C-alpha cells in the first residue's frame, strides 16, 4: 500500500514558526501603491493548449499552466492521465489552510495512485541560454525570475561556462498557486497525486517538483474545504481536461501576460520599489484572462 504522500511538507507547514508567518503578513502591501496603466495587446501571450489544464471543481473552475521546462516527466504524466479522464471525480482529501490542497488519488486517502510506474524526482532542472527565463532579480550568484507563469530560482548563468553541459541548476518557487507533485518518502515516488498551493512555502523548494501554476481560479483553490483528512463531503474535481482536448465550441480562450513584455518588466520594477529588501517573486502577479 502506498504510503501517505506529502507528510514531510504537511509537517513543515504545521511547524512553521509563528514569528515567520507574522513577519510575512507584515510586509508592505503592493495594493497600497497606485496601479500602472494596463497591458496592451503586445504584452499578452497565448499558452500552448497542450500545456493548459482545466480543472472544473464543485467550487468553480481552476485553470493551470503546466511548465514542462521545469518537470517534463510529471507534466507528461498529468497530461496522459487527464486525457484518460483519470482525475474526474477525485476529491481534495487533505487540505491545510495557508498551505495546500492535495488531490489526484483514486482512493481519496493519500495512499493510492495510477497503475503507471512512479515518476523520478524532478526537484531541480537544468537551465541553459536557450531557456526562456526572464530575470526579476539578479543576486550575483543566483537569479530569480520566471519561466512562463512559474517563478524560478536559478544559479547565475555566469557559472554556465564552468559546467560540463553549459547549463546551471534551477528550481521552481512554491508561491501561491504553484502546483507540486506529491510523493512518499522516496524522492522517486511521485505518481498521480498533486497539490496546489494556497500560500507560499519556501521549505518545499528542491524537495518537491514544481510542475505548473494556477493562472485563473486561485480563489477556488482557497475556497476548497479544509481538513486533514477533510471531513465528508469533500470537495472534488468534477472534470479535469487538457485545453487542447476540449471541443473547440466549448474551449475557453486563455491568454497570459508574457514575462518578456514591457508591461511585465514595469510591473516587476513597481513591486521591487514597493517591497524593497522584502521583494519576492511571489509578490509579482501575472495577469491572465479566461473567456
Automatic annotation (TrEMBL):
EC number, as in UniProt: 5.2.1.8
InterPro entries: Cyclophilin-like_dom_sf, Cyclophilin-type_PPIase_dom, Cyclophilin_A-like
Keywords noted in UniProt: Isomerase, Rotamase, Signal
Boundaries of every PPIase cyclophilin-type domain copy: 49-248
CDD domains: cyclophilin
Signal peptide segment: 1-22
Record-linked Pfam families: Pro_isomerase
Domain of life the protein comes from: Bacteria
GO molecular function: peptidyl-prolyl cis-trans isomerase activity
Keyword check for Isomerase: yes
Isomerase listed as a keyword: yes
PROSITE patterns according to UniProt: CSA_PPIASE_2 (PS50072)
PANTHER family (alphabetical): PEPTIDYL-PROLYL CIS-TRANS ISOMERASE-RELATED, PEPTIDYLPROLYL ISOMERASE DOMAIN AND WD REPEAT-CONTAINING PROTEIN 1
Name assigned to this protein: peptidylprolyl isomerase
Organism of origin: Phenylobacterium deserti
Lineage of origin: Bacteria, Pseudomonadati, Pseudomonadota, Alphaproteobacteria, Caulobacterales
Amino acid at each position: 500500500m502506498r504510503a501517505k504522500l506529502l507528510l514531510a511538507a504537511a509537517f513543515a507547514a504545521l511547524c512553521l514558526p509563528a514569528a515567520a508567518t507574522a513577519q510575512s503578513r507584515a510586509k508592505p502591501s503592493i495594493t497600497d501603491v497606485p496601479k500602472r496603466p494596463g497591458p496592451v495587446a503586445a504584452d499578452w501571450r497565448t499558452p500552448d493548449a497542450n500545456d493548459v489544464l482545466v480543472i472544473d471543481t464543485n467550487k468553480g473552475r481552476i485553470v493551470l499552466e503546466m511548465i514542462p521546462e521545469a518537470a517534463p516527466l510529471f507534466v507528461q504524466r498529468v497530461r496522459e492521465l487527464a486525457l484518460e479522464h483519470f482525475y474526474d471525480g477525485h476529491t481534495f482529501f487533505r487540505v491545510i489552510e495557508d498551505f495546500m490542497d492535495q488531490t489526484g488519488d483514486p482512493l481519496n486517502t493519500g495512499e493510492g495512485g495510477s497503475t503507471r510506474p512512479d515518476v523520478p524526482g524532478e526537484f531541480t532542472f537544468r537551465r541553459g541560454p536557450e531557456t526562456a527565463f526572464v530575470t526579476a532579480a539578479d543576486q550575483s550568484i543566483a537569479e530569480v525570475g520566471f519561466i512562463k507563469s512559474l517563478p524560478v530560482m536559478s544559479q547565475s548563468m555566469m557559472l554556465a561556462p564552468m559546467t560540463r553541459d553549459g547549463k546551471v541548476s534551477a528550481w521552481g518557487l512554491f508561491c501561491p498557486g504553484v502546483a507540486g507533485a506529491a510523493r512518499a518518502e522516496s524522492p522517486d515516488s511521485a505518481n498521480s497525486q498533486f497539490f496546489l498551493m494556497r500560500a507560499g512555502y519556501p521549505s518545499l523548494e528542491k524537495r518537491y517538483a514544481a510542475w505548473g501554476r494556477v493562472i485563473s481560479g486561485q480563489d477556488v483553490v482557497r475556497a476548497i474545504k479544509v481538513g486533514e483528512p477533510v471531513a465528508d463531503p469533500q470537495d472534488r474535481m468534477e472534470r479535469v481536461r487538457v485545453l487542447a482536448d476540449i471541443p473547440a465550441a466549448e474551449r475557453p480562450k486563455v491568454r497570459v501576460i508574457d514575462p518578456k513584455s514591457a508591461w511585465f518588466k514595469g510591473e516587476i520594477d513597481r513591486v521591487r520599489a514597493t517591497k524593497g529588501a522584502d521583494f519576492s517573486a511571489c509578490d509579482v502577479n501575472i495577469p491572465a484572462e479566461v473567456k
